[in-house]
Amino acid sequence: MRIDGKGLVDRSKPIRFQFEGIGHTGFEGDTLASALLAKGVRLMGRSFKYHRPRGVLSAGSEEPNALVTIGRGAVQEPNVRATMLEIHDGLDARAQNAWPSLKLDAMAVNDLAWPFLGAGFYYKTFMWPRGFWERLYEPVIRRAAGLGALSGAHAADRHEKAYAFCDLLVIGSGPAGLMAALTAGRAGADVLLVEEDSRFGGRLNAETFQVEGLAGSDWAAQAIAELCGMPNVRLMHRTAVVGAYDHGTYAAVERVNAHRARPPEGGVRETFWRIVAKHAILAAGAIERPVAFENNDRPGIMTAGAVRAYLNRWGASPGRRVAVFGNCDDAHRTARDLEAAGVEVAALIDSREDIAHPGVDCRVYSGAVVTGSTGRLGLKRISVQAADGRKEIEVDCLAMSGGWNPTVHVTCHMNGRPTWREDIASFVPTPGSIPGLVAVGACAGEFSTQACLTAGAVAAKEVLKDLGLKPPRGALVPEAEDTPYRIAPLWAVPGKGRAWLDFQNDVTVKDVRQAAVENFRSVEHMKRYTTQGMATDQGKNSNVGALAVLADVTGRGIPETGITTFRPPFSPVSVATFGAGAQGMGFAPQRLTTSHAESVVRGAPMIEAGLWYRPSYFPQDSETHWRQSCDREVGYVRNAVGVCDVSTLGKIDLQGPGAAELLDFVYTNGFSTLKVGRVRYGLMLREDGFVMDDGTTARLGPEHFVMTTTTAAAGQVMRHLEFVHQVLCPHLDVRFTSVTEQWAQFAVAGPKSRALLNAVLEQPIDNDSWPFMACGEIMLCDVRGRLFRISFSGEHAYEVAVPARFGESLFKLLVARAEALGGGAYGMEALNVLRLEKGHITHAEIHGRTTAFDIGFARMVSGKKDCIGKTMAAREGLVDPGRERLVGLKSVGEDATLSAGAHLFDTSVAMTPETSLGYTTSAAFSPTLGHHIALGFLQHGPDRLGEVIRCVDHMRGLEAEVEICDPVFFDPEGGRARG
Amino acid sequence: MVELIAKSPCAGLLPLAIGDVQVVEVDLGVLTSIAPYAGQGGATSDALRAAHGMRFPKLNRATGKDGARAIWFGRDMALLAGPPCDASMAEHAALTDQSDAWASVVVSGAAAEDVLARLVPIDLRQAHFATGHAARTLVKHMAASITRTGPESFLILVFRSMARTLAHDLKEAMEAVAARG
Amino acid sequence: MRLTCPICGARDRREFYYQGEALARPAPGAGAEAWDEYLHLRDNPAGVRRELWQHEAGCGAWLVVERNTSTHEVLGVSLVLDEAQA
Amino acid sequence: MTFSGLRVLKEGLTGNRGWAPHWRDPEPKAAYDAVIIGGGGHGLATAYYLAKNHGLTNIAVLEKGYIGGGNIGRNTTIVRANYFLPGNSEFYSHSLKLWEGLEEDLNYNVMHSQRGIINLFHSDGQRDAFVRRGNAMITQGDDAILLDREGVRQHLPYLDFENTRFPIYGGLYHPRGGTARHDAVAWGYARGADRRGVDLLQNCEVTGIDIENGAVCGVQTTRGAIRAKKVGIVVAGRSSQVAAMAGMRLPIESHVLQAFVTEGLKPCIDHVVTFGMGHFYISQSDKGGLVFGGDLDFYASYASRGNLPTAEHVMEAGMTLMPMIGQAKLLRSWGGIMDMTPDGSPIIDRTETDGLFIDCGWCYGGFKAVPASGYAFAHLMATGQHHETAAAFRFDRFRTGRGLLDEEGTGSQHNLH
Fold first, then answer.
1. Is the pTM of this model over 0.90?
2. What is the total count of domains within chain B?
3. D405: domain range?
4. pLDDT band at residue A131, thresholds of 50, 70 and 90?
5. CA distance A800 to A945
6. Cβ separation of B121 and C7 shorter than 8 Å?
7. What is the ipTM of this complex?
8. Is some CB atom of chain C closer than 8 A to the CB atom of B128?
C-alpha cells in the first residue's frame, strides 16, 4: 500500500514492469520488492526444499526469499534479489523454483513429506539398489534442487575490470561512513567512498531520525553534495565491496548498468574493481535478525527494519494491518512510524516483561511472544501467547525483530574471528582482523545515529594522523538521535511445529536439534549436516540464530560454540564480472609473426603454439587432405627448397666478458670453446637433472652470443638465465636481453637453398665462406641481417634473420623465389615430418621426464665442468639401463599407421601395466621413406635395435608390429646438411 | 635489386579515437637497450650525456624529450629511443638493437588515466606517476613499459607480436569509459 | 597480495613469479644428501621463511622475500644481488 | 543402527525420535594398539580399514578440531582413475573400485556419482599426451574414450567452439569418473570406524610424539598422554609440523589451492569438465551449485585463503571456455592447504622411527585417493609391508631418482605440480 507524501521515490516518474507476466506500475527509485509491496503483492518466491510460499524478509542484499529471474536468452540472469533490483521500463521478472506457477507449485508436496526430509535424510537412503543413484535418484534430486536457471546461451553483455588506489577506502555511506568521508575529505585525504545501494545514506534513508534538525535523508544528500565538490574524494554507488585480501587489496563490484535492461553501446554491465587502499573504514551497518517461531516464514512476515525501510524510503506499507513483534526497543520504532504514517498497527508484542512505554496508540503486549501464524500464500493471522492468555490477531504483515547483527563479514575474510558481545547479544568485528581496516558504527555494534556519526569522525581522524594530515578544525559531529539500544535475547519461541532459521534452505529449529542428537554438535558439523548458512545469503539471516539454538541444545554458551567462517564474496558476484575481459580471445594475448597475414592469405590453417600462431600447412586447390599438402611441402625441402617462418623460437642476446662462462654453466656442453662465427647445438637441464630445453647458440663476437630456445620454453629459459645469473653466478659480468621480437627469422631449407639465398644476398656465399654451422652478418636487399647455417630438417639449410619490420616482405620474397625453384612455403606439419625423419627431438620427447641419458645424449654432458643439473642427473635411478630410452620405430612388412601415445609391448604377451615397455612420442608418414615412422621411449631401447615389438594404440584402434631402429631414419651420416 | 618494404607493428590497427581518448602508433626511431656492465653505471651515464645529451635515467624515470629519450627499462637497463646509439657506449654497456621489437603507442586525452586504470595494475594518477615517470608493469596480460610523456599522455610499449591484442584491449577499455559519459 | 620491489615499489602479486625457499646451492661434490636437501626437503614452517621471487613482469630482479606463511605478512624484500654483496 | 529408506520412513512416522549419534565421543584411553594422528578423510579411512581388514579395533583417531574438518571438508569432490605412470595407475584404479562399493560397505550414502569426466585438449601435442594416458588407463583395466571435437560437442554443447582463445580439439572421456559428497565420505568412514570400536577423539591435538631408543611409544595430546606402539601421521596440510615432532623433514612445501561455488542453479553441467590450457575444472553439485577451481596461488601458505590473481584467472578461464556460466553468481570461495611434493605424487611409507608411519604429500589429488590411501596405509601399519597398489609412494625416490612419479613433467619445484 503506497502512503501519500512518504518516501524518496519520484512519483512524477512512473515505470511499467512485469512480475509473473502481470503488468505493474512503480516509480523511479523503487526496487522490485518495494514496487510489488506497494501493490499489495506479498508472494514472491518459493523455498529450496519444501517449496514453501515466500515473500520478502529484508530490504537489502541479504534477502533469502524474494529471488527472481530477469532477462532472457543471452542476458538471462537467475537469483536476482527483488530487494536490490531497481525497476526499469520493460523489466520482466519471473519467480523461480516453482512449477507450474508461483501460486500453485506442484513441488509443494515436499512440504507435506517434511517428516521424512529432515536434516541429512539423503545420507541414510537412496543406496539401494546399486547403480540407481546415477540413473534414478540423483537426476530427480538434481531437477528438484537448484534455484533459478541459466539459459545455456553464451553471455552477451560486456563486463570489465579496473584498478583503483586511495589513501582511505570508506565502505558504506550511512551516518558513520558519511562522517568518516567528510572528516577525511575536508582534510584533503585521497578518499574513495563506496556504497552498495543505489542511493547514498544507508539507514538514514530508511528511518525518520533527524540530523542537525534535518531529515536524515536530507542531511545525507547534503553531505554527498559536499563530498562531490571535493576533488580529492571519489564516490561510487551501486558498488559492493565483496572481498578483503592481503596488504590492503579489496575487491568491489560496481553495477554500472546492471540496473538497466541493457548497457548502452560499448558500455559494460558491471565493473570488477581491484581497490588498493592504505586504510579502510568499514561502515557496513547491521543486519536485523528474525525470530524463530512456528511458521515464521509466511509471506508478509519480515524484519521490522525492513518494514520501516519500505515505509519511510519507498512510501510503501507492506501491510494494511500490521503487528510488530520484537525483543528490543528498536522494534518499537516500527510501530511508531507506521502509526505516524496512518497505517493500522494491530499490536506491539515485546518478549520482555518490563519495557518503557513505546509511545504508541496500539495495544502493547509485554512479556508476550508470537507462537504461530496462518495463511497459505500470505499471512492472515498470528497467535500470541500473552500474560493474560492466548490471542489470535488478524494481520497481513508482521514486523519482527530479534535484534541486529553487525555486518562483520568482510572482517572475517582473512580468517578473523568476530567477538561476542553479551550486552547487544551479537558478534562484533575483532580489531586487527584486517590489517589497515577499522569497523565503525552499527557494524561495530554502535547503534545510535549519534554514536555512528562520532565513531566515523574519530576513525577518520586516526587515519589522518597516520597519513600526516591535519584534521579539520571546529566541532564537526552534528547532533542526532542517541537512544540506547536495549535488548533481551530471544532466539526461538518454544513450540511443537517447525520454526525456520535458514529460510531459503528450509532449515528449522528441529533440524538443528536433530543434528545435535546425531552428534553433529560442532557448529561446522551442524552447518554441513543441515545446510544451514549454505544458501545464497551465506547465513547472514540465520547463522547467529542457529548457533544460539545449537548452543542451547548442547548446553554451551554462544562464544564457546563458535561460529562458521565468512568467506569472500560478501555478496554473490557474476562469473562474467569476476572473469571480465576473457570471453572469446581475451583470455591470453595473441602473438602474431610478421608472416601471419600472408600465411592466412595462402589459406594456411593457423595453429596455436605458446601463444603464437603458426601455419599448419599451405593447401593448394587440387588438395583435399592435409597429408597431401604436408607430403608436397616435405618434398620441397628434400628435393628443392622450402621456406618456413621460425621467428617464434626464443632468441636471447648475451654480451659481456662472462657470457661464455654463463653458457658453459647452463648448457651441458661447452661454449667457451665455440669459435666466433660458428653455431653449436646445446642441451639445457633443470637442476633436478631432467632436460629443460635445447637449441642452437651462435657466437657473433668474442663476448657476444645469441641463444635460441624452443618456442614453448622461451619464457622459462629467460627466467632461468636471470635466476642463474642473479642468484647463482652474480660474479659473472654478463648482460642479456630477449631479441625474439626484434628479428623475423626464416628457415630456407633444401638442396637449392643456397641458390635461393645467393639470388637475394649482396655477397654470394659458398660452402667455404659459409660452411655447415657457420653464422654471421649479411646484407640482403640493402638490409643488414644475420645468416645461420643450421638445419632442423637435415638438409642443406639456413636460417636468415632480418629486423622484424621487413619480415612480411622478406617472407613473400623468399617464398616467391622458392616457388620459382620448384619449392615453396612449408608449415608445422611438414616441419614435424622433416625433423622426425632426422630423429631430431622436440618437447614431445623432452617432456620433462626424460634425461640426456634417456635421449641418447649422455655424451653431451661434459665431464670437464659443472653445469646445472649435472649432479642430480647422475642419480642411480636416472642412469639405469632399464629406463625407457629413445629409439626409432618403423612398421614391419606392409606399412601400418603408427601414432603418438601408443604403448609398446613384446609380441605375444598379455597387455598389462607390467608388460608395457614404453610408448611412442611422435609419429608420422614419411613421404621420403614411403612408410610410417615413430620415435618412442623403450626400456633397454638402444640395446634392442633390430628386434620386433608391438605398438598398440587402444584410443585410436591402431596396432602394428614395429622394428626397433636408430632414431635417425634419414641420412644418418648427415652428408646432406654439409653438402 | 628487390627492395624490402618495412611494415610497422600496428599497421592497420591504429589510430583509434573513442570518446576523448586517442591512441596512435609512434615511430620512436632507433631503439637501443643499454645495459651497463659491472661498475660501469657512472661511465655509461657520462658517455650517454656526451653522445646524446641526456643522463642515464634513474630508476622508474625517463630522461630526454620527444625525439631523443632514455627510458628506464628494468634492472640495470635503459632504452635509448631516437638516435642510433653512439658506438663508443659499447665499451661501458651491452648495446642491443630493439628497434623492431616493440609496438609503441601513445594514449592521450582527458580520460587516458581512466582507460589505463582498466588495464594497468599500478597507480598512474598524476600525483603518483608524474610526467617523466616510467614503469615496467602489465597491460592486462602483457608485459609493458609505460612512460608518462605529458599531463594527459602516456607512451606504452609492448612486444611487437602482441600489437593486435594491445589495440583490442585498449579499444574495449576506451569504449567502456566513453559509454560512461 | 602485494610485494614491495626494492626497485619498482609496491606491486600486485600478479607481477611476480614465486620459486620457493631461498637456499644455497650445494657444491657439485657435496653428496646425495646435501642435494636431496637442496632440491626436495623443506622446513616448510607455518611462520616466517625466506623465499625467492622474481619481479618477472616488472624490472626482472630476483628477490629474497621474508614472509609469514600463516598470515602472508611480508617482513622484508631485498634484491638477491644485494644479499650476495652483503 | 542401519540406515535405509525404510528407517527414514519409520522415524518420520514416529516423530524422528529414534535417531542416535553417528559416532560416540569417548574419553581417551591411556593406551591403544595404534593411534592415527588426523581425523580427515585419509585418517578416518585408515582407521576403518585397520578395523575392518586387519581386526585392529583398539585404536584411536586423534583430531585437533572436528572430524572431516581438513581438506576432505573443502575440495572439489572429483573422483577419477586417469593417471598414466606405473605406480600411480594401479593405485587410483584400486581407489575407484573401492569407491564403487563404498555406499554398501559403509551403509552411508556418499553420493558417489559416476557422471563422467572429460579432459579437453587444445593441440595435436596435447591429444597425443592424452592418448598415451588413455592407453595406460585401458591397459590398467579402466575406461577411457578419445573424443574428437564433434564428440565433445555432443556431450558439452554449451562450450564455446567458435570463438575461444584455445580452440577445442577434443577430449579424453573417462565415463567412470565423477564426484562424491565430500563431507559424507568423512562421516561415513567415521561412523563405520566407530561402529567397529574405533575411538574418535575430537578436539585432541597432538603436541608431541614420544620416541624411545628409535621406536615410537606414544603421543602427547591436549587431552593427555596416550601410549601406542604404532603411530600413523595422516595430517595433510600440517604434515611438516607433525613430522617435525618426530625430528623429520619432509619433501613437502605447503601451498594454498582455492575453490569456488556458485549459487544454486537448475541442472546445466552434467559432467566433470577440465580445461588444461586454463587450469580450470568444473562440475555441478546435486544441490545445484557450480563447483570449480583452478591452479595454486603458487606461493607457500598455511592461511587456507587465497588472493585475487588466481581467483580472477579461474573465472577468466571459465568465461573463455563456457561463457554460458557468465550469469551464474559466485557464492563462496575458500582455500585448502596442499602438501606439495617434488614430483606431485604422494608418500605412504614407514619412517626411520620404528612404529611411526606417514601418509602425506597428496598435493591437490587427495580426495579421490581417500579409500585406497586408507586401505594401503592400514595395510602398511598392520603388516609393516607396503600394499601392492601403493608400493611406489616411498621417500627414497627423490634421493635415488628411482621411480619418480612426475605426471606433470614439471620437475622438482614443489609448486609446479
1. yes
2. 2
3. 25-77+183-251+343-416
4. confident
5. 38
6. no
7. 0.98
8. no
